[in-house]
Amino acid sequence: MRPPVFPFPRPYRRATRVLLLSLLLSLFLLGAAARGNASLERGMFRGDRFTLQAFSIEDSLLSAAAGEEAPVARARLWSRLELEAMAARIRDQIARGGPLEASVRLVLHPGEGSTPGFASLRVDLTGATAMASSRERSVKPARSILRAAIRAAGDTVAVAAHARAFDRAAAAPGRSRLEAIASGVAAVRDRLLESGHYAGDATVDSIVPSGATTWVHLAVRSGGVVSLESFELEGARTTRPNAAAAIAGVRRGERLRPAMLEAARDRLLASELFAVVGEPRVAPGSAPDRARLIVPVEEARSSRFEGVVGAAQGGGVTGAIDLALENIAGSGRAAGLRWSGLGAVGTEYAVRYREPALFGQPLDASAALDAHVVDSLFTRTRWSLGAGVHAGSRGHVTLSFARTGTTYGGVARGTNSDWTASAGFAWRALVPAANPRSGFTASITGDGGRRREVFPGFPVVSRSLSRGSIQIEGALPRGAGSALHASARAEGTSLGGASFPAEELHYLGGNEGLRGHRERAFAGSRIATFSIEHRWLTDPAGGRAYIFADAGWHELARPLAAGNATPGSAAGALARTELSDGWDFGYGAGLRTRAAAGTVGVELGLRPGASLGAATIHLRYGSRW
Description:
Elements: H1 10-47, E1 49-55, H2 59-66, H3 70-75, E2 77-79, H4 80-97, E3 102-109, E4 117-125, E5 130-131, E6 138-139, E7 145-153, H5 159-170, H6 177-194, E8 201-210, E9 213-221, E10 227-234, H7 241-248, H8 258-270, E11 274-277, E12 281-284, E13 290-299, E14 304-312, E15 316-325, E16 334-341, E17 347-355, E18 364-374, E19 378-391, E20 395-408, E21 415-428, E22 439-454, E23 461-477, E24 482-495, E25 500-501, E26 506-508, E27 522-524, E28 526-537, E29 544-555, E30 560-561, E31 582-594, E32 599-606, E33 616-624
Parallel strand pairs: 1-4, 7-9, 10-13, 25-30
Antiparallel strand pairs: 1-2, 3-4, 5-6, 8-9, 11-13, 12-13, 14-15, 14-33, 15-16, 16-17, 17-18, 18-19, 19-20, 20-21, 21-22, 22-23, 23-24, 24-28, 26-27, 28-29, 29-31, 31-32, 32-33
Helix pairs in contact: 2-4, 5-6, 7-8
């Protein structure tokens, strides 16, 4: 009897078949995954793990590369990726401080089954001499000579020059091999910049040892010559870029070179238009062979007004006004006016003008007009034209020509005139300018020519004339808020003949170098003044309190004369000025402080042995903008 059959209903038969097939496929995939995981697990912990065998590697080097002690590194198992990374670190360590001929060889021997493999890590030194060690072999080869093999693209003419630049830089002593190569590559790049190839580059292709020489193959791409497209002042509010470019001596279309950039920065600093001049930057222009030159600056408050009023017993009231206009309308041009009222000694006027860039060149030009009037004695005028050039960021060299004329009055009659040529050098390094704490300035000037004298009733006389002056000023910091300031000045005039003209006198006293005495209390054909101050600085804009001591020396080599008057008679018109030879001294104290629109100050000076009632007083006011 057949068992009963319970057939599925027809709608469920297709779904049952799909379910059975899905179940069989899942069982098959699970089995394959299990076999794969087992194989991967066996590989990770057996065939793909390696013991380490290191040859010719010092323990210190192995420890640094492995990040653990050398015995621990040799005892544990390593993966392939870990071994490759450690070999790269060993290679880098040797390259930084060892021979470039060294190579690191890593050989992997896979294990079988559950047995791990082993890795052989060895350092090979080509041409080296073996040195035995108790635990391993360490080899140190003789240092080979580095030479460059240049492959130039676009500048085949300079191949030999590039190679010489590399060889000289790489041969410098006291450097590792890697540092020597880097210095050589930098020297080649510097040479590209010096020739104006700012788009050029030099890269290392390969390093090939060959006997006693190691050849460094360089690919040098010179690129095109880069020229100046525009000049920009970053941070300037008043100064026009074209005026600054003329002062800096750079022109549009000029080839860019590092020496040109350095010279441009020095000229901008020396112009005294800027308190700070940063490092010039070269930025891309509108074309690959064009570049913009950007110079960050901070403009200085260079225009100024200064006034002083003095009073002394027996000397009356004197004063001086000095107005200096710098960087007029952002052009860099300057003009100035000075007036000095010296009481019985006379009155002086001075007008000056300076052009910062003559014909677009880094050459400045200046013109000046001076006048000295002494009532009932003489009127003297002097005009001069000069040109100057900056020497670095602090120096300035000048050359000028001047004509001086004097007309005598009172008891004296006659005229004189002279043409002179003058040369001078100045160095300015006092910082900060308004209230110096350190540095020094120095200037020296000399001029010579011929003097022509025309006196009624006498033949025309011509004699040689020479003048000279030197001035030194310096500051030395004394703690956080004080400084020691010292200065010295010497002037002299020499000319032939039996008398010395009154208009050639040099003065000192009062505001001109010997405080504690009245204005122009002393005069001579040669003078020298010395001053020392201890300053307590209250603010960088010029505020300070100070004590001072001054000394002055004066000498008159011949009797004083004016025109056709009898020698010695001119001294009567200068009765308030002492013409004897000797030394004089002064001392005192002063104070300068900030006001709403500038600085105000008062200064009290005394001469040795004088009472307080005989003191000289100077009131000062100054402003900068």
